[in-house]
Amino acid sequence: MTTCVAGRAVIDGSGTGRVMRLAEPISFWGDVDPFSGRLTNPRGSRHGQSIAGRVLVLPELRGSSSGSAVMLELLSRGIAPAALVLGRIDAIIGLGILVGREMGYPVIPLIQLDTAQQAALADGAMARIEPGGRIALVESDG
Q1: N or C: fewer beta carbons within 10 Å in the chain?
Q2: Region 1-9: what's the mean pLDDT?
């Protein structure tokens, strides 16, 4: 069975990975280790877990102008999320993705999807991001 939701592609692309759904905002500057892709905030619910290759879903980011540099570092090392799905778009993180594209790194999709629709994206489920912002969740049959 496949569940689909339609988001708005801010930076279009495709990607596949397991959903990592966070209830709380993170800052790429300070909450993500740019050398390992792991979440570093000891008060965070996912402390120590890696965002590499995951479809990272959260309501919003906590801003820092340095977040784009962290995203660029993750892209250059091949440890960025497979996609970023946000309820509220952060232009700074998008800038890091776009600069990465100009430098020849793989582009990850940046999708806007309101928090009510994010509820359809079960944590740990396999998700496929398709061009145009469509997110397909593929559930196993057993």
Answers
A1: C
A2: 90
